Amino acid sequence: MTDSHRSTPAGLKGTSKLEFVFLCAALMATNALAIDIMLPALQQIGSALNVANENHRQYVVTAYLVGFGCAQLVYGPLSDRFGRRTPLLAGLVIYILAALAIIVAPSFAGLLILRFIQGAGSAGTRVITISIVRDIYGGRQMAEVMSLIMMVFMIIPIVAPGTGQLIMLFGNWHLIFLFIAVGASLIGLWTYKRLPETLAHENRREFTPAVILQGFKIVLSNRIALFYTLSSTFVFGSLFGFINSAQQIYMGIYHLGEWFPVAFAGVAIFMSLSSFLNSKLVGRLGMRRLSHGSLFGFITINGLWLLAETYGPQPLPFFVFMGFFSLSMFQFGWIGGNFQTLAIEPLGHVAGTASSVLGFISTVGGSLIGAVIGQAFDGTARPLVIGYFALGVIGLVFVLIAEKGKLFHAQNPKV
């Protein structure tokens, strides 16, 4: 890390930039942990709770994501009124208690309800963490910090499936949720001890229906914020589609067995590398040039992948599948963080509400789109690849609307 990464930003009261990046990454990683660590256990969960249709096991992911998305509408206004720390810590407590309750869930329906609640608790870590970053940074500097956070955050998708499979060597799927609860407790303690309040008292907003609706109006009436969020929604939908069907593709089509976590981690490494490179390049090239170019790359790679899936051997050789997929997700690493930063950049004066509304749209919308892709699984990877290509094209349409047809052009030197 350079000296600038070790320095203490104004407003962090003794917490270095390096620690701040790792702490924010850990907070956001509670969400990835709750999804990725239990993917190897989906088959065991389905068998234990008498889920006959294997596609219905995907609801364990979808229920969590819907709760995660819906609750974001609450955390933003709460954090704009009461500050960042209290709602953030309350969300972590909900997340931990739900994880512990899942251990004794009596039925699949009960598990899905608790997963929804767990997602609702985790929503605070997403909304409020982004708001905290926006409190401290802006423009390309915010994009750089978010890229560093995402680079560290991506450690979880790399190690989580393997960790889940390792845990299952010593017991059943219940131990995974105990591990989630313990991990979140440690992150919560770290947050309580080391993360100061970043929202100044003079910037706090009243918590009334009128003020909340006014904040929503500000967000939804901003063309750049709204349409970059819609673009993120559809592009993220492709990722959620993969998460839903990853276990079926890797283990059902390619019969990877215990190698499933290794394949999952391989793609996550590409995304982590992409986020690292983005943090190095965004200050010089800007968010728009990097993300717009990556979106075109995303569409092109997935178009070629779709041709291979349509006219090539079925299934595609595993190394061909992984080659296309890894290249596609490398582009994704330059899209996600930059699009989110571009969406919230004009809305710093209502960062909490903005983060919640934009997060609600992208997460709930993306999870429902991903559920459609997952439920379309037919024993081949083709529904997934069609989804990746089509959603990339739709995402491009929304970017064109946001930018009034002018791509690659920085509207000001900071972005």
Using brief descriptors, characterize the structure shown.
415 residues, mainly alpha, Growth Hormone, Chain: A, 0% strand, disordered N terminus
Short summary:
With about 425 residues, the protein is an all-alpha fold. It has helices spanning about 5, 15-35, 40-50, 60-70, 70-80, 85-100, 110-135, 140-155, 155-170, 175-195, 210-220, 225-255, 260-285, 285-310, 320-345, 350-375, 380-400.
Could you estimate the helical fraction of the residues in percent? over 70%
> What value does the average pLDDT take?
86
Overall geometric form? globular
CATH topology, by name, is Growth Hormone, Chain: A
Query: Quick one: CATH class?
Result: Mainly Alpha
Structural category is mainly alpha
The radius of gyration is: 20 Å
Overall strand count = 0
Measure the end-to-end span.
23 Å
* SS summary, helix count: 17
**Largest beta-sheet characterization:** none
Q: Estimate what percentage of residues fall within beta strands.
A: under 5%
The helix/strand series, from N terminus to C terminus, equals HHHHHHHHHHHHHHHHH
CATH architecture: Up-down Bundle
Output the CATH homologous superfamily.
Answer: MFS general substrate transporter like domains
- Poorly predicted ranges: 1-8
Number of domains: 1
